[in-house]
Amino acid sequence: MRSNLMEEEIQNTLAILRKGGVILYPTDTVWGLGCDARNKEAVNKLFKIKQRAEYKSMVVLVCDETMINRYVKEVPEVTWELLESAEEPLTIIYPDGRMLAENIIAADGSVGIRLVKDQFCNTLIHKFGKPIASTSANISGEPYPSSFSDIKLDILNKVDYIVNLRRTEIINAKPSTIIKVALNGEIKIVRK
């Protein structure tokens, strides 16, 4: 059962995402920066806050398998086994992303997508009806924040909304495992 606070935070966050804003929020891994993965201007803003080169892609968060099928041209069969057996957050790089902001898709056409199980993130994406472009809430090249208090003022001052949940807890503080899958079913571990 969701609390009134979570419901209120979901509504506040949705309003910002729908306006093309950037949010700071707790994810299933580390505190993250996020925006509408279909909005090119929002993704540009995310890159600027992160101070990240645009050729370095970001992860796209989805709430269910239907979204994976919608934003990937052809999902390799091995994907479903990987997702089912994953015990920790898993980002899968698919060969051909589609219907996303062009600046979220890598130069080779691939896109990294993570199916989130975290209640807040999953509910937010489900209600938003679109995937969220996401990256850790740190300046590119600096350490990941293990708690809200580790996030630099520079980031806090540039986002459009900061989710008021789980600010005192130390979360997983570890990014997801990343696996690249090819259409022929070949698997390559990018980050463990």
Relevant terms:
single chain, about 190 residues, alpha/beta, DHBP synthase, 6 helices, about 30% helix
What does this structure look like?
- Helix 1 (4-18) packs across helix 5.
- 29% of the residues lie in helices and 21% in strands.
- The chain has 192 residues and is α/β, with parallel strands linked by helices.
- The mean pLDDT is 90.
- It has a single domain (4-191), classed as DHBP synthase (Alpha-Beta Complex).
- It has a nine-stranded mixed beta sheet with strand order 7-1-2-6-3-5-4-8-9, with helices on both faces.
- It is built from six helices and nine strands, in the order αββαβααββαβαβββ.
Regions with pLDDT < 50 over 5+ consecutive residues? none
CATH class: Alpha Beta
Taking the alpha carbons of the first and last residues, their distance comes to 33 Å
Helical content, roughly? 25-40%
Main sheet attributes: strand count, strand direction, barrel closure: 9 strands, mixed
Judged by helices, strands and strand pairing, the structural class is: alpha/beta
Strand content: 15-25%
CATH superfamily: DHBP synthase
Q: Could you tell me the number of beta strands? A: 9
* Overall mean pLDDT: 90
Proper CATH architecture: Alpha-Beta Complex
Note the overall shape: globular
Number of helices: 6
